[in-house]
Amino acid sequence: MPSKYQAWRVHPNVSTHDEKSIDILENLVLQEAEKPVPDPGQALVRIHAAALNFRDLLITAFSPKYPVSTIPGLSPCSDGAGSIEAMGPSKNSRWKVGDEVIFRVTNSWDDGDVSNFKGNGLGSGDIQGTLSQYLLVDESWLVKKPSHLTWEQAASIAGAGGTAIQALFHNGISNGLDLSGKTVLTQGTGGSSIFSAQFAVAAGARVIGTTSSDSKAELLKDLGVHEVVNYRTHLSWADEVLKLTDGRGVDLVIDVGGSATFEQSLKAARFGGTVAAVGFMTEPQPSDPGLIHAIIFGAKTIRGQMAASLEMYHELVEFMERHKIEPVVGQVSEWTEAKDAFKALMRQSVPGKIVIKV
Ligand SMILES: NC(=O)c1ccc[n+]([C@@H]2O[C@H](COP(=O)([O-])OP(=O)(O)OC[C@H]3O[C@@H](n4cnc5c(N)ncnc54)[C@H](OP(=O)(O)O)[C@@H]3O)[C@@H](O)[C@H]2O)c1
Fold first, then answer.
1. What lines the ligand 1 site, CB under 6 Å?
2. Could you tell me the pTM of the whole model?
3. What pLDDT does residue 1 have?
4. In the chain, which stretches have pLDDT less than 70?
């Protein structure tokens, strides 16, 4: 068995920190490393596929917008799927060589509320990530791979799927994993929003999606989304959502746009409704005193979402297996062409998840 393996690592080779600049890809370098031997409590995983999230652009850019500073030499990416090749000596591990696994984004939050979340995520700060042929991790990072998914599909679920589970089912809106009688709004066709839309449909909600193009609207409809609003042709898209809901608004908005979408998201939420703040795709806007008015006199709840607990990951796997949900994988790049995958993520042209074969 070869003792060396390859990993993509980030080094601050360019001066720009703009995650939309193609130049940041010069920070990504393919390197060789020596295969490590697991200590007790550790597993060495042969990664078969890794998937990208928007945060991986920020990390590759060494962007100050990401809350944790990146060490040079970090392998980015939290999402991946693989099989355990070696285990450290242990008498009572629940894992064994050959098990097929994915990784949770943080290993610090097992159950309870988010106050139990400490430390950083995989592929950020100084914690090596999945854009690597091998990853040595503490067993606490491992989650069983859903049995019905390919490596590429399984690689794409952890970050976006875990967040969707938390946003939909842990905000006091659902009845367990049931959203019958509730209306949910999702934004766009990025990896994160497509999971939210798929899960909300499977849980029995009425789902309204927004998107930037009519072709992407068709994709949402194919996934079971009930109504779609084009936010480019309807700049005040919340008015369209209010029309669709007889003026009431939706129970839950899953906001990925951030600053530039938040006002519309608040307007689209019903009286007493919730906006789950998941993403920050847009640039900061001047603060608007009208927002506070909208929150107070709409009795609205704003919930920041951060990753998912181990309990939520178990729900994610069980929910996807039960409903036979397959992630939308929009592009699969070969290992040596990993930079093409980052370019596609920058262009926002590919709906769903962008995966790299490892
Ligand atoms: N809090 C967490 O734990 C967590 C977890 C995962 C992701 N996130 C965050 O969620 C955001 C989305 O992540 P992602 O990985 O899904 O990104 P992504 O796959 O790159 O999503 C890109 C898509 O977002 C949509 N979009 C962009 N600007 C928009 C706008 N102004 N209004 C509505 N939709 C817009 C576009 O879809 P259309 O062209 O169809 O409109 C675009 O194709 C990021 O900010 C990411 O950091 C947070």
1. 53-55, 159-160, 163, 187-193, 210-212, 216, 231, 256-257, 260-261, 278-282, 305-307, 345, 348
2. 0.95
3. 65
4. 1
pLDDT at res. 174: 97
Q: Do domains 4-157+327-357 and 163-304 have the same CATH topology?
A: yes
CATH number for region 4-157+327-357: 3.90.180.10
**Ligand 1 centroid from CA 196, angstroms:** 11
d(C-alpha 121, C-alpha 306), whole Å: 10
**DSSP-H helix ranges across the chain:** 54-60, 151-155, 158-169, 191-202, 214-222, 237-244, 262-268, 289-297, 310-323, 338-347
Q: Tell me which of 3.40.190.290, 3.60.15.10, 3.30.420.10, 3.90.180.10 is the CATH number of domain 163-304.
A: 3.90.180.10
Domain ranges of the chain: 4-157+327-357, 163-304
Q: What is the pLDDT of residue 36?
A: 96
CA distance 41 to 24: 36
| pLDDT for residue 285 | 83
Task: Read off the tokens for 350.
Answer: 């590919």
Taking only the tens place, the pLDDT of each residue in 116-175 is 988 789 999 999 999 999 999 999 999 999 999 999 999 999 999 999 999 999 999 999
